[in-house]
């Protein structure tokens, strides 16, 4: 199953601006809607007040004449109704019994369920309607009329076209959106300037990284950036410190390896030159045998160097598995049994413990093989090498009856190519890399290597102790 490609984060400045401006634009839009609605309500109140004033002015002209409701609307007043600057006005006066008195008889009637306006101390109702295809707003006012002979309530209706209200609404909307747009634009500009200023130290850090020489692994100064970015700078400094140690170690390893390989290769070249000049078959055979021994020593050194390089590069990360330490000791013992028999060494395995640890089986095998190989090489003929595995905590022991390592040199022998004087006398062909390999592989598995003197007599007890385990059946 293929994994989806990682999402690109993009520009930090762009993300900050988006997170600042998008919520701001939403809030401004909501505010604009609220302001627009409030403005419309205020406009409606103003227009309704004007419409009520026109209705009251008409109501004052409604009287009772000869027992009937009459509306004295002169031509001038009628003309003012029809040409009012607020919009076209339409009116209708209905008598006490619902009879048409004056005005436009087809003006839409007051619908049922319309609530009386609480904003004015009058029996007035406001409602929207459509008159001859035009949207109008109508004020319906119940006006008491009476004389000495009769009394009752007449209905006066005045309708106003919605054009003026719509024009005012559009004007309010345009002005509101214009102000809010200017506000967002100003906020965007200020946010851009602010983000640029805030990111300036980070951009300077970026520039410092770009111009730094590849060989310069010194720390960056975290005080030049913001507090939130200092952990990142500290992590960068820590990484460069680890990289510096790795590069230094590699340089030292290459230098040491070159020095160590140069000697046997020089000897081998000298032996080859002697063989080319030698005519005596017996002497020639002795030279060739010496070349074979030198070649074996060089191959052994090269193999140790490769193992050390592989351990130093963290090969532990791949191919982890459950490794039974007891079984591992037995397999290595069988592999090196012929070498022990050739020196008349008693190679044995004690105990029945078989703890299991999680690790790289190939590297753990190499670690154990180096311990056992060292023990056999430095143990004199007729000596003993004993292998043990223990539980709780899981650990292995390789004990030999060789010359051992003096207590003051037990830490130094882990350094590459370091050999004690007793090691030189016991095995002149040693490389000084065996315990270095053991230490590096153990470190990859969070294990600790300890060297102690043999409890009985001379010799060395090498112990590798693991911190965690998974016991096998």
Automatic annotation (TrEMBL):
List residues traversing the bilayer: 16-36, 181-203
* Protein name per Swiss-Prot or TrEMBL: histidine kinase
Class of enzymatic activity (EC top level): transferase
What keywords appear on the UniProt entry? Kinase, Membrane, Phosphoprotein, Transferase, Transmembrane, Transmembrane helix
Organism of provenance: Noviherbaspirillum galbum
Please list the residue ranges annotated as the Histidine kinase domain: 256-470
User: What chemistry does it catalyse, as a reaction equation?
Assistant: ATP + protein L-histidine = ADP + protein N-phospho-L-histidine
Please verify whether the record's keywords include Electron transport.
no
The residues the entry assigns to the signal sequence are: none
The record's GO CC annotations read:
plasma membrane
Q: Which PANTHER family match?
A: SENSOR HISTIDINE KINASE YKOH, SENSOR PROTEIN QSEC
Q: What is its main location?
A: membrane
Cellular location of this protein? Answer: Membrane
Keyword flag Transferase = yes
List, alphabetically, the Pfam families matched.
2CSK_N, HATPase_c, HisKA
**GO terms, molecular function:** phosphorelay sensor kinase activity
Instruction: Write the Enzyme Commission number(s) for this entry.
Output: 2.7.13.3
């Amino acid at each position: 199953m293929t994994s989806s490609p990682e999402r690109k984060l993009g520009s930090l400045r762009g993300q900050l601006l988006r997170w600042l401006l998008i919520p701001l634009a939403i809030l401004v839009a909501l505010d604009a809607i609220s302001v627009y609605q409030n403005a419309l309500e205020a406009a409606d109140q103003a227009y309704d007040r004007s419409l009520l004033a026109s209705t009251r002015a008409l109501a004052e002209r409604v009287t009772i004449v000869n027992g009937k409701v009459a509306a004295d609307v002169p031509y001038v007043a009628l003309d003012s109704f029809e040409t009012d600057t607020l919009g076209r006005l339409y009116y209708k006066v209905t008598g006490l019994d619902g009879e048409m008195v004056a005005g436009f008889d087809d003006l839409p009637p007051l619908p049922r369920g319309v609530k009386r306006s609480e904003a004015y101390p009058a029996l007035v109702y406001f409602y929207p309607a459509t008159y001859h295809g035009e949207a109008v707003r109508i004020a319906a006012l119940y006006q008491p009329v009476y004389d000495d002979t009769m009394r009752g309530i007449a209905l006066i209706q005045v309708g106003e076209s919605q054009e003026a209200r719509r024009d005012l609404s559009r004007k309010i909307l345009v002005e509101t959106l214009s102000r809010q747009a200017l506000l967002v634009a100003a906020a965007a500009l200020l946010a851009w300037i602010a983000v640029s200023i805030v990111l300036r130290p980070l951009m300077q850090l970026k520039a410092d990284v770009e111009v730094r020489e590849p060989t310069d692994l010194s720390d960056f100064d975290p005080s030049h950036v913001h507090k939130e970015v200092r952990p990142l700078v500290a992590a960068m400094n820590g990484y460069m410190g680890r990289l510096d140690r790795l590069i230094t170690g590699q340089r030292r390893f290459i230098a040491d390896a070159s020095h160590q390989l140069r000697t046997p290769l020089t000897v081998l070249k000298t032996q080859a030159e002697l063989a080319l000049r030698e005519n005596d078959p017996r002497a020639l055979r002795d030279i060739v045998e010496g070349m074979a021994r030198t070649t074996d020593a060089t191959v052994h050194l090269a193999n140790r160097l490769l193992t050390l390089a592989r351990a130093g590069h963290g090969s532990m990360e791949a191919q982890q598995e459950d490794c039974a330490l007891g079984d591992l000791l037995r397999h290595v013992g069988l592999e090196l049994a012929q070498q022990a028999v050739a020196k008349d060494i008693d190679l044995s395995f004690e105990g029945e413990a078989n703890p299991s640890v999680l690790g790289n089986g190939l590297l753990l095998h190499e670690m154990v093989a180096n311990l056992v190989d060292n023990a056999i090489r430095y143990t004199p003929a007729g000596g003993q090498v004993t292998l043990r595995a223990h539980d709780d905590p899981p650990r292995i022991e390789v004990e030999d009856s060789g010359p051992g390592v003096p207590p003051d040199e037990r830490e130094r022998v882990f350094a590459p190519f370091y050999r004690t004087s007793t090691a030189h006398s016991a095995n002149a062909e040693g490389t000084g890399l065996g315990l270095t390999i053991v230490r590096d592989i153990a470190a990859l598995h969070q294990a600790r290597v300890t060297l102690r003197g043999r409890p009985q007599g001379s010799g060395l007890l090498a112990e590798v102790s693991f911190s965690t385990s998974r016991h096998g059946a």
